[in-house]
Amino acid sequence: MSYYTSSYISDSSVPYSLDGRLISPYYRQPTPTLPQLGGIRHHEPSHLGYTHRSYNCVICLGDESSGGGLCVPTPRCTHVRSICVGCRTQYLNNVICVQGLTRVSCPQTGCHQQFSEADIERWGDSATKSRYYYLIGIRKTALQSLRSVQAASTPRNKRADEQASSEYMRINTKPCPSCAAPIAKYGDGCDHMRCAPPGGCGFEFCWLCLCDFEPVRQDGNHRHEKFCKHYRAIEP
């Protein structure tokens, strides 16, 4: 078979080989990638001479006639229909039930849209929706706990805690008469106190009148202060 070139074909805008055969521009272009196409496309000539583009699911590679037809994953996606209806349901199930995630992104490469709660409620199966709301409940509980901790650590609450601690120390502790270390007394126990080491100095004293307990031990209760209930006057 002979090949001829006309003046039209010899135009530099139409590529051809040295023997005169035309080279289709399609084969001279690099293969388009999935993100560029927004789905896998097939070019089919129509009866009117126009090119009809059909797309395939990015997950199962099925065409528009399978899996309930192709759709846009989320209403907010701006690319072409790139996933079949059946695969969208399975995709949601896998991400939520298997991976345990509640933030589900569009499976289309380069698209960063997320499935909303309304999307999951609309297109997820019963198992997916049940698992989703379970995971959301855990996240809400954890978030509430975190907020409680954060609220407790705010400057205002810290000041309130410090004031409460200071008030407790004022009411329930007394400084050691010897070294001024705070001494706490719990309950209605003995009033004979000791500033215990290693933090204390070892000084012994009366909780009520703060007198040195060594003279009391040697001489008797008249060494307490007179206002102290343990004071006993020396009998004549």
TrEMBL record:
Keywords: Metal-binding, Repeat, Transferase, Ubl conjugation pathway, Zinc, Zinc-finger
Record GO biological process: protein ubiquitination
Domain RING-type: 1-234
Molecular-function GO terms, alphabetical: ubiquitin-protein transferase activity; zinc ion binding
Pfam annotation, one family: IBR_1
UniProt-listed SUPFAM superfamilies: RING/U-box (SSF57850)
Keyword Zinc tagged: yes
Signal peptide: none
Descriptive protein name: Putative E3 ubiquitin-protein ligase ARI6
